[in-house]
Protein backbone atom coordinates (compact mmCIF):
# COMPACT_ATOMS: atom_id res chain seq x y z
CA UNK A 1 0.00 0.00 0.00
CA UNK A 2 1.35 3.26 -0.96
CA UNK A 3 2.14 5.36 1.99
CA UNK A 4 -0.36 8.10 2.51
CA UNK A 5 0.67 11.62 3.04
CA UNK A 6 -0.44 12.92 6.38
CA UNK A 7 -0.36 16.55 7.06
CA UNK A 8 -0.45 18.24 10.38
CA UNK A 9 -2.37 21.44 10.12
CA UNK A 10 -1.79 24.29 12.54
CA UNK A 11 -4.72 26.63 12.94
CA UNK A 12 -4.49 30.29 13.64
CA UNK A 13 -4.37 33.57 11.89
CA UNK A 14 -0.63 33.69 11.18
CA UNK A 15 0.13 35.64 8.09
CA UNK A 16 2.62 33.87 5.89
CA UNK A 17 3.70 33.89 2.30
CA UNK A 18 1.28 32.23 0.00
CA UNK A 19 2.99 29.23 -1.56
CA UNK A 20 1.74 27.40 -4.53
CA UNK A 21 0.62 28.51 -7.91
CA UNK A 22 -2.91 28.68 -9.14
CA UNK A 23 -3.85 25.75 -11.31
CA UNK A 24 -4.19 26.65 -14.93
CA UNK A 25 -7.88 25.76 -15.11
CA UNK A 26 -8.72 26.73 -11.51
CA UNK A 27 -11.28 29.16 -10.24
CA UNK A 28 -10.07 31.91 -7.97
CA UNK A 29 -8.52 30.34 -4.86
CA UNK A 30 -10.06 31.38 -1.59
CA UNK A 31 -8.15 29.28 0.93
CA UNK A 32 -4.51 30.12 1.53
CA UNK A 33 -2.34 27.18 2.55
CA UNK A 34 1.28 27.72 3.53
CA UNK A 35 3.96 25.33 4.65
CA UNK A 36 5.24 26.39 8.04
CA UNK A 37 8.09 23.97 8.36
CA UNK A 38 9.26 20.44 8.91
CA UNK A 39 8.95 18.83 12.30
CA UNK A 40 12.03 16.84 13.30
CA UNK A 41 12.17 13.92 15.75
CA UNK A 42 13.44 16.07 18.57
CA UNK A 43 10.37 18.24 18.23
CA UNK A 44 12.09 21.18 16.66
CA UNK A 45 10.65 22.83 13.62
CA UNK A 46 12.85 23.53 10.59
CA UNK A 47 11.49 26.92 9.64
CA UNK A 48 9.63 27.04 6.38
CA UNK A 49 11.41 30.28 5.55
CA UNK A 50 14.52 28.16 5.02
CA UNK A 51 12.74 25.64 2.87
CA UNK A 52 11.83 27.54 -0.27
CA UNK A 53 14.98 27.20 -2.27
CA UNK A 54 15.77 27.74 -5.87
CA UNK A 55 12.39 28.11 -7.53
CA UNK A 56 10.23 30.78 -5.98
CA UNK A 57 6.97 29.64 -4.41
CA UNK A 58 8.16 26.07 -4.00
CA UNK A 59 9.06 24.26 -0.80
CA UNK A 60 11.97 21.89 -1.33
CA UNK A 61 13.00 19.16 1.07
CA UNK A 62 16.38 17.47 0.81
CA UNK A 63 17.70 14.09 1.86
CA UNK A 64 18.97 15.29 5.20
CA UNK A 65 15.53 16.61 6.09
CA UNK A 66 13.28 14.00 4.53
CA UNK A 67 14.52 10.97 6.35
CA UNK A 68 14.28 12.15 9.95
CA UNK A 69 11.28 14.43 9.52
CA UNK A 70 8.05 13.28 11.09
CA UNK A 71 5.70 15.68 9.46
CA UNK A 72 5.20 18.80 7.45
CA UNK A 73 3.30 21.56 9.12
CA UNK A 74 1.05 23.78 7.12
CA UNK A 75 -1.29 26.56 8.07
CA UNK A 76 -4.32 27.76 6.26
CA UNK A 77 -6.71 30.66 6.45
CA UNK A 78 -10.03 31.76 4.98
CA UNK A 79 -11.72 28.39 5.31
CA UNK A 80 -15.39 29.01 4.36
CA UNK A 81 -16.87 28.65 7.80
CA UNK A 82 -20.65 28.52 7.57
CA UNK A 83 -20.69 27.29 3.97
CA UNK A 84 -21.62 23.78 5.00
CA UNK A 85 -18.19 22.39 4.12
CA UNK A 86 -17.05 20.06 6.86
CA UNK A 87 -13.61 18.98 5.72
CA UNK A 88 -10.43 20.30 4.26
CA UNK A 89 -9.83 17.40 1.91
CA UNK A 90 -6.29 17.07 0.54
CA UNK A 91 -5.66 15.66 -2.93
CA UNK A 92 -2.36 15.25 -4.69
CA UNK A 93 -1.55 15.41 -8.37
CA UNK A 94 1.45 16.10 -10.53
CA UNK A 95 2.43 19.71 -10.90
CA UNK A 96 0.01 21.52 -13.15
CA UNK A 97 -2.89 19.13 -12.54
CA UNK A 98 -5.86 20.99 -11.01
CA UNK A 99 -7.28 18.68 -8.41
CA UNK A 100 -10.10 21.09 -7.69
CA UNK A 101 -11.44 20.07 -11.09
CA UNK A 102 -13.97 17.26 -10.69
CA UNK A 103 -12.78 15.61 -13.87
CA UNK A 104 -9.38 14.98 -12.29
CA UNK A 105 -10.92 13.32 -9.23
CA UNK A 106 -13.96 11.44 -10.41
CA UNK A 107 -13.14 8.01 -11.86
CA UNK A 108 -16.52 7.90 -13.55
CA UNK A 109 -15.35 10.69 -15.85
CA UNK A 110 -12.57 9.42 -18.09
CA UNK A 111 -10.54 6.25 -17.69
CA UNK A 112 -8.22 7.24 -14.88
CA UNK A 113 -7.98 9.98 -12.31
CA UNK A 114 -5.04 12.31 -12.24
CA UNK A 115 -5.45 13.14 -8.57
CA UNK A 116 -5.36 11.02 -5.49
CA UNK A 117 -7.05 11.73 -2.19
CA UNK A 118 -4.43 11.60 0.53
CA UNK A 119 -5.93 12.96 3.67
CA UNK A 120 -8.80 14.96 5.12
CA UNK A 121 -9.13 16.99 8.25
CA UNK A 122 -12.25 18.29 9.80
CA UNK A 123 -12.70 21.96 8.99
CA UNK A 124 -12.91 24.47 11.80
CA UNK A 125 -16.23 25.86 12.99
CA UNK A 126 -14.62 29.15 13.71
CA UNK A 127 -11.74 30.84 11.96
CA UNK A 128 -9.48 30.51 14.96
CA UNK A 129 -10.44 27.02 15.99
CA UNK A 130 -7.52 24.67 16.52
CA UNK A 131 -7.76 21.71 14.19
CA UNK A 132 -7.03 18.25 15.45
CA UNK A 133 -3.57 17.04 14.55
CA UNK A 134 -3.05 14.21 12.18
CA UNK A 135 -0.31 11.61 11.95
CA UNK A 136 3.17 12.08 10.55
CA UNK A 137 3.86 13.12 7.01
CA UNK A 138 7.34 12.13 6.11
CA UNK A 139 9.23 8.99 6.90
CA UNK A 140 9.50 7.68 10.52
CA UNK A 141 8.47 4.27 9.32
CA UNK A 142 9.73 2.74 12.53
CA UNK A 143 7.07 4.43 14.56
CA UNK A 144 4.39 2.72 12.56
CA UNK A 145 2.70 5.96 11.69
CA UNK A 146 1.37 6.53 8.22
CA UNK A 147 3.53 8.53 5.89
CA UNK A 148 3.08 9.36 2.26
CA UNK A 149 6.75 9.56 1.34
CA UNK A 150 9.26 7.00 2.54
CA UNK A 151 12.06 9.25 1.40
CA UNK A 152 13.54 6.83 -1.07
CA UNK A 153 15.12 8.42 -4.10
CA UNK A 154 12.21 7.44 -6.32
CA UNK A 155 10.07 9.81 -4.28
CA UNK A 156 11.95 12.76 -5.78
CA UNK A 157 9.76 15.04 -7.77
CA UNK A 158 7.46 18.04 -7.68
CA UNK A 159 4.03 17.56 -6.20
CA UNK A 160 1.05 19.87 -5.99
CA UNK A 161 -1.35 19.44 -3.09
CA UNK A 162 -4.88 20.81 -3.17
CA UNK A 163 -6.92 21.37 -0.04
CA UNK A 164 -10.61 21.35 -0.97
CA UNK A 165 -13.45 22.58 1.23
CA UNK A 166 -15.73 19.55 0.92
CA UNK A 167 -18.71 17.99 2.62
CA UNK A 168 -17.04 14.63 3.11
CA UNK A 169 -13.72 12.89 2.69
CA UNK A 170 -12.80 11.75 -0.76
CA UNK A 171 -15.61 13.76 -2.30
CA UNK A 172 -15.56 14.10 -6.07
CA UNK A 173 -18.27 16.74 -6.07
CA UNK A 174 -17.48 20.17 -7.49
CA UNK A 175 -15.88 22.56 -5.05
CA UNK A 176 -15.72 26.32 -4.99
CA UNK A 177 -13.25 26.92 -2.16
CA UNK A 178 -9.80 25.45 -2.22
CA UNK A 179 -6.12 26.21 -1.80
CA UNK A 180 -2.88 24.59 -2.87
CA UNK A 181 0.85 24.39 -2.29
CA UNK A 182 3.74 22.85 -4.16
CA UNK A 183 6.16 20.50 -2.49
CA UNK A 184 9.35 19.24 -4.04
CA UNK A 185 11.41 16.34 -2.82
CA UNK A 186 15.00 16.58 -3.97
CA UNK A 187 17.22 14.05 -2.29
CA UNK A 188 19.72 13.63 -5.08
CA UNK A 189 22.91 15.66 -4.93
CA UNK A 190 24.87 16.83 -7.95
CA UNK A 191 28.07 15.10 -8.85
CA UNK A 192 31.34 16.25 -7.31
CA UNK A 193 33.35 18.82 -9.27
CA UNK A 194 36.19 17.60 -11.43
CA UNK A 195 39.76 18.65 -12.19
CA UNK A 196 40.55 19.83 -8.70
CA UNK A 197 44.00 21.43 -8.59
CA UNK A 198 45.99 22.29 -5.49
CA UNK A 199 49.32 24.06 -5.41
CA UNK A 200 52.20 25.31 -3.35
CA UNK A 201 52.94 28.49 -1.50
CA UNK A 202 54.31 29.89 1.71
CA UNK A 203 51.36 31.84 3.15
CA UNK A 204 48.41 30.85 1.03
CA UNK A 205 47.47 28.74 -1.93
CA UNK A 206 44.48 28.80 -4.24
CA UNK A 207 42.57 25.60 -4.98
CA UNK A 208 40.81 25.50 -8.35
CA UNK A 209 38.25 23.21 -9.94
CA UNK A 210 36.04 23.06 -12.99
CA UNK A 211 32.57 24.51 -13.02
CA UNK A 212 29.88 21.83 -12.79
CA UNK A 213 27.56 23.64 -15.14
CA UNK A 214 23.80 23.30 -15.14
CA UNK A 215 21.33 25.24 -13.05
CA UNK A 216 21.13 23.25 -9.85
CA UNK A 217 24.37 24.35 -8.21
CA UNK A 218 24.12 26.45 -5.06
CA UNK A 219 27.85 26.46 -4.30
CA UNK A 220 30.93 24.48 -3.39
CA UNK A 221 32.61 23.42 -0.13
CA UNK A 222 36.34 22.86 0.32
CA UNK A 223 37.64 20.41 2.89
CA UNK A 224 41.20 19.95 4.16
CA UNK A 225 42.64 16.91 5.92
CA UNK A 226 44.25 18.58 8.90
CA UNK A 227 45.30 15.28 10.50
CA UNK A 228 48.29 14.66 8.23
CA UNK A 229 51.45 16.52 7.20
CA UNK A 230 52.06 14.45 4.10
CA UNK A 231 49.40 14.43 1.42
CA UNK A 232 50.13 10.77 0.63
CA UNK A 233 49.01 9.77 4.13
CA UNK A 234 45.58 11.35 3.86
CA UNK A 235 42.44 9.28 4.23
CA UNK A 236 40.52 11.45 1.77
CA UNK A 237 39.31 9.54 -1.26
CA UNK A 238 37.15 10.39 -4.29
CA UNK A 239 33.52 9.46 -3.78
CA UNK A 240 33.86 9.47 -0.03
CA UNK A 241 30.98 10.94 1.97
CA UNK A 242 31.82 14.01 3.98
CA UNK A 243 32.55 12.92 7.56
CA UNK A 244 30.11 14.39 10.04
CA UNK A 245 32.82 15.91 12.21
CA UNK A 246 34.82 17.45 9.39
CA UNK A 247 34.65 21.23 9.23
CA UNK A 248 34.76 22.82 5.81
CA UNK A 249 37.65 25.20 5.32
CA UNK A 250 36.08 27.34 2.63
CA UNK A 251 32.86 27.66 0.68
CA UNK A 252 31.96 29.55 -2.46
CA UNK A 253 28.81 30.35 -4.37
CA UNK A 254 28.02 28.84 -7.74
CA UNK A 255 29.87 31.62 -9.58
CA UNK A 256 33.26 30.79 -8.17
CA UNK A 257 35.50 27.83 -8.96
CA UNK A 258 38.39 28.64 -6.65
CA UNK A 259 39.10 29.16 -2.99
CA UNK A 260 42.19 30.49 -1.20
CA UNK A 261 43.51 28.66 1.85
CA UNK A 262 45.83 30.13 4.49
CA UNK A 263 48.55 27.52 4.93
CA UNK A 264 49.70 28.68 8.35
CA UNK A 265 46.16 28.30 9.68
CA UNK A 266 46.16 24.70 8.50
CA UNK A 267 49.08 23.90 10.81
CA UNK A 268 51.54 23.17 8.01
CA UNK A 269 55.24 23.86 8.36
CA UNK A 270 57.55 24.41 5.41
CA UNK A 271 57.84 21.40 3.10
CA UNK A 272 54.73 19.78 4.59
CA UNK A 273 51.64 18.97 2.58
CA UNK A 274 48.08 17.85 3.01
CA UNK A 275 45.04 16.81 0.98
CA UNK A 276 42.05 18.86 -0.13
CA UNK A 277 38.73 17.80 -1.65
CA UNK A 278 35.78 19.76 -2.97
CA UNK A 279 32.05 19.00 -2.87
CA UNK A 280 29.11 20.57 -4.67
CA UNK A 281 25.90 21.70 -3.01
CA UNK A 282 22.61 21.94 -4.89
CA UNK A 283 19.74 24.30 -4.20
CA UNK A 284 18.06 21.80 -1.90
CA UNK A 285 21.35 21.82 0.04
CA UNK A 286 22.18 18.25 -0.88
CA UNK A 287 25.96 17.85 -0.74
CA UNK A 288 27.91 15.59 -3.07
CA UNK A 289 30.64 13.18 -2.09
CA UNK A 290 34.30 14.17 -2.27
CA UNK A 291 35.86 15.09 -5.55
CA UNK A 292 39.20 13.76 -6.61
CA UNK A 293 41.81 14.65 -4.01
CA UNK A 294 44.47 17.30 -4.61
CA UNK A 295 47.52 18.22 -2.56
CA UNK A 296 48.59 21.59 -1.18
CA UNK A 297 52.18 22.08 -0.05
CA UNK A 298 53.81 24.76 2.03
CA UNK A 299 57.13 25.86 0.54
CA UNK A 300 59.43 28.85 0.82
CA UNK A 301 58.65 31.47 -1.82
CA UNK A 302 60.11 34.79 -2.91
CA UNK A 303 57.90 37.78 -3.53
CA UNK A 304 58.84 40.89 -5.47
CA UNK A 305 60.92 42.56 -2.76
CA UNK A 306 62.72 39.34 -1.84
CA UNK A 307 63.69 38.82 -5.44
CA UNK A 308 64.59 42.45 -6.04
CA UNK A 309 66.98 42.46 -3.10
CA UNK A 310 68.50 39.14 -4.15
CA UNK A 311 69.30 40.80 -7.44
CA UNK A 312 71.03 43.73 -5.75
CA UNK A 313 68.17 46.17 -5.65
CA UNK A 314 66.87 48.15 -2.71
CA UNK A 315 63.48 47.55 -1.11
CA UNK A 316 63.57 49.54 2.11
CA UNK A 317 60.68 48.91 4.44
CA UNK A 318 58.89 51.79 6.09
CA UNK A 319 60.20 52.92 9.47
CA UNK A 320 57.83 55.86 9.82
CA UNK A 321 54.54 55.43 11.64
CA UNK A 322 51.34 55.35 9.68
CA UNK A 323 50.28 53.38 6.67
CA UNK A 324 51.53 54.56 3.29
CA UNK A 325 48.13 53.65 1.99
CA UNK A 326 46.63 55.85 4.67
CA UNK A 327 48.76 58.73 3.54
CA UNK A 328 47.60 58.18 0.00
CA UNK A 329 44.02 58.13 1.13
CA UNK A 330 44.61 61.34 3.02
CA UNK A 331 46.05 62.90 -0.10
CA UNK A 332 43.03 61.89 -2.11
CA UNK A 333 40.70 63.19 0.56
CA UNK A 334 42.49 66.54 0.64
CA UNK A 335 42.28 66.78 -3.11
CA UNK A 336 38.57 66.12 -3.17
CA UNK A 337 37.92 68.48 -0.26
CA UNK A 338 39.80 71.26 -1.99
CA UNK A 339 37.82 70.70 -5.16
CA UNK A 340 34.59 70.81 -3.22
CA UNK A 341 35.45 74.01 -1.43
CA UNK A 342 36.53 75.79 -4.57
CA UNK A 343 33.40 74.99 -6.56
CA UNK A 344 30.86 77.82 -6.53
CA UNK A 345 27.63 78.60 -8.30
CA UNK A 346 27.67 81.50 -10.70
CA UNK A 347 24.99 84.24 -10.63
CA UNK A 348 22.64 84.41 -13.62
CA UNK A 349 24.19 85.65 -16.80
CA UNK A 350 21.98 88.75 -16.92
CA UNK A 351 23.19 90.01 -13.56
CA UNK A 352 26.81 89.28 -14.38
CA UNK A 353 26.70 91.21 -17.65
CA UNK A 354 25.06 94.12 -15.89
CA UNK A 355 27.87 94.17 -13.34
CA UNK A 356 30.41 94.37 -16.12
CA UNK A 357 28.69 97.36 -17.67
CA UNK A 358 27.22 95.58 -20.63
CA UNK A 359 23.72 96.31 -21.79
CA UNK A 360 21.12 93.91 -20.59
CA UNK A 361 18.32 93.17 -23.01
CA UNK B 1 13.22 136.77 -21.93
CA UNK B 2 12.33 135.24 -25.24
CA UNK B 3 15.62 133.30 -25.30
CA UNK B 4 15.04 132.05 -21.80
CA UNK B 5 11.61 130.79 -22.74
CA UNK B 6 12.98 129.05 -25.84
CA UNK B 7 15.74 127.42 -23.81
CA UNK B 8 13.21 126.25 -21.25
CA UNK B 9 10.97 124.81 -23.96
CA UNK B 10 13.90 123.05 -25.56
CA UNK B 11 14.93 121.55 -22.26
CA UNK B 12 11.40 120.37 -21.59
CA UNK B 13 11.23 118.80 -25.02
CA UNK B 14 14.47 117.02 -24.42
CA UNK B 15 13.25 115.80 -21.06
CA UNK B 16 9.95 114.61 -22.50
CA UNK B 17 11.46 112.84 -25.44
CA UNK B 18 14.32 111.31 -23.39
CA UNK B 19 16.83 112.04 -26.06
CA UNK B 20 20.46 112.15 -25.05
CA UNK B 21 23.64 112.07 -27.00
CA UNK B 22 24.86 109.41 -24.64
CA UNK B 23 21.92 107.24 -25.56
CA UNK B 24 22.58 107.11 -29.24
CA UNK B 25 22.79 103.47 -30.49
CA UNK B 26 25.13 102.38 -33.26
CA UNK B 27 23.38 100.39 -35.94
CA UNK B 28 24.75 96.81 -35.98
CA UNK B 29 25.18 97.13 -39.73
CA UNK B 30 27.51 100.03 -39.19
CA UNK B 31 31.19 99.27 -39.66
CA UNK B 32 31.93 100.86 -36.32
CA UNK B 33 29.69 98.40 -34.50
CA UNK B 34 31.46 95.99 -32.19
CA UNK B 35 29.33 93.30 -30.57
CA UNK B 36 29.62 93.23 -26.80
CA UNK B 37 32.34 90.80 -25.82
CA UNK B 38 31.18 88.01 -23.51
CA UNK B 39 33.02 88.05 -20.23
CA UNK B 40 33.39 84.54 -18.85
CA UNK B 41 33.69 83.66 -15.22
CA UNK B 42 37.13 83.57 -13.58
CA UNK B 43 39.13 80.62 -14.73
CA UNK B 44 41.45 79.90 -11.82
CA UNK B 45 41.10 76.16 -11.31
CA UNK B 46 41.15 72.94 -13.26
CA UNK B 47 40.38 69.32 -12.44
CA UNK B 48 41.62 66.36 -14.47
CA UNK B 49 40.76 62.67 -14.40
CA UNK B 50 43.18 60.32 -16.09
CA UNK B 51 43.85 56.76 -17.15
CA UNK B 52 47.13 55.51 -18.49
CA UNK B 53 50.06 53.16 -18.20
CA UNK B 54 52.86 53.14 -15.68
CA UNK B 55 55.82 50.83 -15.63
CA UNK B 56 58.48 51.34 -12.92
CA UNK B 57 62.01 51.44 -14.27
CA UNK B 58 63.49 49.07 -11.74
CA UNK B 59 67.16 48.29 -12.18
CA UNK B 60 66.72 44.55 -11.66
CA UNK B 61 64.67 41.98 -13.53
CA UNK B 62 62.53 41.20 -10.48
CA UNK B 63 59.56 43.21 -11.71
CA UNK B 64 59.33 41.39 -15.01
CA UNK B 65 60.01 38.01 -13.40
CA UNK B 66 57.17 38.37 -10.92
CA UNK B 67 54.68 40.59 -12.75
CA UNK B 68 55.44 39.52 -16.33
CA UNK B 69 55.64 43.05 -17.63
CA UNK B 70 52.32 44.19 -16.20
CA UNK B 71 51.95 47.94 -16.78
CA UNK B 72 48.92 49.00 -14.84
CA UNK B 73 46.73 50.76 -15.78
CA UNK B 74 47.12 53.80 -13.59
CA UNK B 75 44.10 55.85 -12.63
CA UNK B 76 44.46 59.30 -11.21
CA UNK B 77 43.20 62.80 -10.67
CA UNK B 78 44.71 66.28 -10.44
CA UNK B 79 43.58 69.63 -9.12
CA UNK B 80 45.29 72.75 -10.49
CA UNK B 81 45.08 76.10 -8.74
CA UNK B 82 46.05 78.79 -11.24
CA UNK B 83 45.72 82.25 -9.77
CA UNK B 84 48.19 84.05 -12.01
CA UNK B 85 47.35 85.02 -15.54
CA UNK B 86 50.22 85.85 -17.81
CA UNK B 87 48.80 88.04 -20.59
CA UNK B 88 48.87 86.44 -24.02
CA UNK B 89 50.36 83.27 -22.56
CA UNK B 90 48.10 81.54 -20.06
CA UNK B 91 47.73 80.74 -16.42
CA UNK B 92 50.31 79.67 -13.86
CA UNK B 93 49.94 78.03 -10.48
CA UNK B 94 50.12 74.84 -8.43
CA UNK B 95 48.90 71.35 -9.22
CA UNK B 96 48.18 68.49 -6.78
CA UNK B 97 48.00 65.03 -8.34
CA UNK B 98 47.09 61.59 -7.03
CA UNK B 99 47.24 58.19 -8.72
CA UNK B 100 46.86 54.48 -8.11
CA UNK B 101 48.22 51.44 -9.94
CA UNK B 102 48.50 47.79 -8.96
CA UNK B 103 50.51 44.94 -10.39
CA UNK B 104 49.62 41.28 -9.79
CA UNK B 105 51.76 38.21 -10.33
CA UNK B 106 52.96 34.96 -8.73
CA UNK B 107 55.60 34.47 -6.07
CA UNK B 108 58.51 32.29 -7.18
CA UNK B 109 59.89 29.15 -5.60
CA UNK B 110 63.57 28.56 -4.95
CA UNK B 111 64.04 27.35 -8.49
CA UNK B 112 62.56 30.54 -9.87
CA UNK B 113 59.32 28.95 -11.01
CA UNK B 114 55.95 30.60 -10.41
CA UNK B 115 54.01 29.18 -7.51
CA UNK B 116 50.33 29.41 -6.68
CA UNK B 117 50.99 32.16 -4.19
CA UNK B 118 50.06 35.67 -5.26
CA UNK B 119 52.46 38.61 -5.36
CA UNK B 120 51.32 42.21 -5.60
CA UNK B 121 52.89 45.65 -5.87
CA UNK B 122 50.74 48.74 -5.37
CA UNK B 123 51.84 52.30 -6.11
CA UNK B 124 50.22 55.60 -5.04
CA UNK B 125 51.97 58.51 -6.78
CA UNK B 126 51.41 61.89 -5.09
CA UNK B 127 52.73 65.02 -6.78
CA UNK B 128 52.94 68.74 -6.08
CA UNK B 129 53.64 70.52 -9.35
CA UNK B 130 54.19 73.95 -10.77
CA UNK B 131 51.78 74.23 -13.70
CA UNK B 132 51.83 76.54 -16.68
CA UNK B 133 48.69 76.26 -18.84
CA UNK B 134 49.18 77.98 -22.17
CA UNK B 135 45.71 78.79 -23.43
CA UNK B 136 46.46 81.76 -25.65
CA UNK B 137 45.48 79.90 -28.81
CA UNK B 138 42.07 79.06 -27.46
CA UNK B 139 41.51 82.32 -25.71
CA UNK B 140 42.71 84.78 -28.35
CA UNK B 141 42.54 82.95 -31.63
CA UNK B 142 39.73 80.50 -31.08
CA UNK B 143 41.97 77.50 -31.74
CA UNK B 144 40.71 74.88 -29.27
CA UNK B 145 44.12 73.70 -28.09
CA UNK B 146 45.75 74.20 -24.72
CA UNK B 147 49.31 73.17 -23.90
CA UNK B 148 50.44 72.56 -20.35
CA UNK B 149 53.82 72.01 -18.76
CA UNK B 150 54.25 70.63 -15.25
CA UNK B 151 57.21 70.01 -13.00
CA UNK B 152 57.52 69.36 -9.31
CA UNK B 153 57.99 66.94 -6.43
CA UNK B 154 56.81 63.36 -6.68
CA UNK B 155 56.25 61.01 -3.75
CA UNK B 156 55.30 57.46 -4.67
CA UNK B 157 53.90 55.38 -1.84
CA UNK B 158 54.51 51.70 -2.56
CA UNK B 159 53.44 48.46 -0.91
CA UNK B 160 54.69 44.97 -1.78
CA UNK B 161 52.63 41.93 -0.72
CA UNK B 162 53.16 38.19 -1.02
CA UNK B 163 50.51 35.64 -0.19
CA UNK B 164 48.25 38.33 1.20
CA UNK B 165 50.82 39.57 3.74
CA UNK B 166 52.74 42.82 3.42
CA UNK B 167 56.38 42.30 2.51
CA UNK B 168 57.56 45.90 2.66
CA UNK B 169 56.14 49.38 2.16
CA UNK B 170 57.50 52.88 2.08
CA UNK B 171 57.53 56.07 0.05
CA UNK B 172 60.04 57.00 -2.65
CA UNK B 173 60.75 60.64 -3.52
CA UNK B 174 61.85 62.25 -6.73
CA UNK B 175 61.04 64.76 -9.45
CA UNK B 176 58.06 64.61 -11.80
CA UNK B 177 57.68 66.32 -15.13
CA UNK B 178 54.77 66.30 -17.58
CA UNK B 179 53.72 67.77 -20.89
CA UNK B 180 50.08 67.91 -21.94
CA UNK B 181 48.06 68.82 -25.00
CA UNK B 182 44.35 69.32 -24.53
CA UNK B 183 41.46 69.75 -26.95
CA UNK B 184 38.87 72.19 -25.63
CA UNK B 185 35.41 70.86 -26.28
CA UNK B 186 33.53 74.18 -26.30
CA UNK B 187 33.43 74.30 -30.06
CA UNK B 188 30.99 71.39 -30.21
CA UNK B 189 28.25 73.53 -28.67
CA UNK B 190 29.18 77.08 -27.77
CA UNK B 191 25.77 77.84 -26.34
CA UNK B 192 25.90 74.87 -24.01
CA UNK B 193 29.40 75.84 -22.97
CA UNK B 194 28.24 79.33 -22.08
CA UNK B 195 25.31 77.97 -20.15
CA UNK B 196 27.63 75.67 -18.24
CA UNK B 197 29.72 78.66 -17.29
CA UNK B 198 26.75 80.81 -16.36
CA UNK B 199 25.09 78.21 -14.18
CA UNK B 200 27.98 76.20 -12.78
CA UNK B 201 31.04 78.33 -13.35
CA UNK B 202 32.65 75.69 -15.53
CA UNK B 203 34.56 77.65 -18.12
CA UNK B 204 35.79 74.84 -20.34
CA UNK B 205 35.78 71.08 -20.68
CA UNK B 206 38.57 69.30 -22.44
CA UNK B 207 40.10 65.97 -23.29
CA UNK B 208 43.84 65.60 -23.11
CA UNK B 209 46.86 63.46 -23.65
CA UNK B 210 49.80 63.73 -21.29
CA UNK B 211 53.28 62.31 -21.27
CA UNK B 212 55.16 62.28 -18.00
CA UNK B 213 58.07 60.86 -16.07
CA UNK B 214 59.29 60.47 -12.51
CA UNK B 215 62.62 59.94 -10.78
CA UNK B 216 61.14 58.61 -7.49
CA UNK B 217 63.74 56.13 -6.23
CA UNK B 218 64.81 56.85 -2.64
CA UNK B 219 63.53 53.59 -1.07
CA UNK B 220 62.47 51.63 -4.18
CA UNK B 221 63.06 52.55 -7.79
CA UNK B 222 59.43 53.20 -8.70
CA UNK B 223 60.02 56.13 -11.02
CA UNK B 224 59.53 55.84 -14.73
CA UNK B 225 61.37 57.31 -17.69
CA UNK B 226 58.17 57.83 -19.62
CA UNK B 227 54.51 57.04 -19.16
CA UNK B 228 51.38 58.39 -20.75
CA UNK B 229 47.84 59.11 -19.68
CA UNK B 230 44.70 60.42 -21.26
CA UNK B 231 41.57 61.79 -19.71
CA UNK B 232 38.93 64.37 -19.22
CA UNK B 233 39.22 67.73 -17.51
CA UNK B 234 37.37 70.90 -16.78
CA UNK B 235 38.38 74.40 -15.78
CA UNK B 236 36.30 76.59 -13.51
Give a description of the structure.
The complex is a heterodimer of chains A (361) and B (236). Chain A has helices spanning 63-66, 304-310, 324-342, 349-355, and strands at 8-10, 32-39, 45-47, 59-61, 71-77, 87-94, 116-122, 157-166, 178-185, 199-201, 204-208, 219-224, 250-253, 258-262, 273-281, 294-298. Chain A has 361 residues and is mostly beta strands. Chain A has a five-stranded mixed beta sheet with strand order 4-9-8-6-7. In chain A, strands 10-16-15-12-13 form a five-stranded mixed beta sheet, with no helix packed on it. In chain A, strand 2 and strand 3 form a beta hairpin. The longest helix of chain A is centred in the C-terminal third of the chain and has 19 residues, at 324-342. The radius of gyration of chain A is 32 Å and the shape is elongated. The N and C termini of chain A lie far apart (98 Å). Chain B is α+β, with helices and mostly antiparallel strands and 236 residues long. Chain B has four helices and eight strands. Chain B has an eight-stranded antiparallel barrel. In chain B, strand 5 (145-162) and strand 6 (165-184) form a beta hairpin. The longest helix of chain B has 16 residues, at 2-17. Chain B is elongated, with a radius of gyration of 29 Å. The model of chain B is unreliable at 14-23 (pLDDT under 50). Classes of the chains: A mainly beta (361), B alpha+beta (236).
Question: Topology of this protein?
Answer:
The complex is a heterodimer of chains A (361) and B (236).
Chain A lengths: L7 E3 L21 E8 L5 E3 L11 E3 L1 H4 L4 E7 L9 E8 L21 E7 L34 E10 L11 E8 L13 E3 L2 E5 L10 E6 L25 E4 L4 E5 L10 E9 L12 E5 L5 H7 L13 H19 L6 H7 L6
Parallel strand pairs in A: 1-5, 4-9, 10-16
Antiparallel strand pairs in A: 2-3, 2-5, 6-7, 6-8, 8-9, 11-14, 12-13, 12-15, 15-16
Chain B lengths: L1 H16 L27 E8 L9 H6 L6 E13 L3 E19 L5 E21 L1 H5 L4 E18 L2 E20 L5 H11 L3 E11 L9 E12 L1
Antiparallel strand pairs in B: 1-2, 1-8, 2-3, 3-4, 4-5, 5-6, 6-7, 7-8
Amino acid sequence: MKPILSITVAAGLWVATCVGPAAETAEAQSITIDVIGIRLPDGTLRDGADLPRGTAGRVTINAEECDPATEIEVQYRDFPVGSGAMFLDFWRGDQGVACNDTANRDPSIGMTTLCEEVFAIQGPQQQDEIVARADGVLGDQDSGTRAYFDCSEDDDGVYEFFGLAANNEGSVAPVTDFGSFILQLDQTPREAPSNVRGGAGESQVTVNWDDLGGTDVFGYNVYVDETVTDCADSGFAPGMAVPDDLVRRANTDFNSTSATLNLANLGLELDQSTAVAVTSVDFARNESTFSEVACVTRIATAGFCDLHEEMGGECEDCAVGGSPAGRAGLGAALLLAAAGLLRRRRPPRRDRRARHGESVR
Amino acid sequence: MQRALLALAGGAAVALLGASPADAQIDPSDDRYEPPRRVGSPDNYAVELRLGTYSPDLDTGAFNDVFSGDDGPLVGAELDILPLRIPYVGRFGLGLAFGWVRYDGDALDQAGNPTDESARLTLFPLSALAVLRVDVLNRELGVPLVFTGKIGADGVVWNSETGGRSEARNISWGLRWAGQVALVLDFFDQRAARRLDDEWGINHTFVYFEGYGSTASTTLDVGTDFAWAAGLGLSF
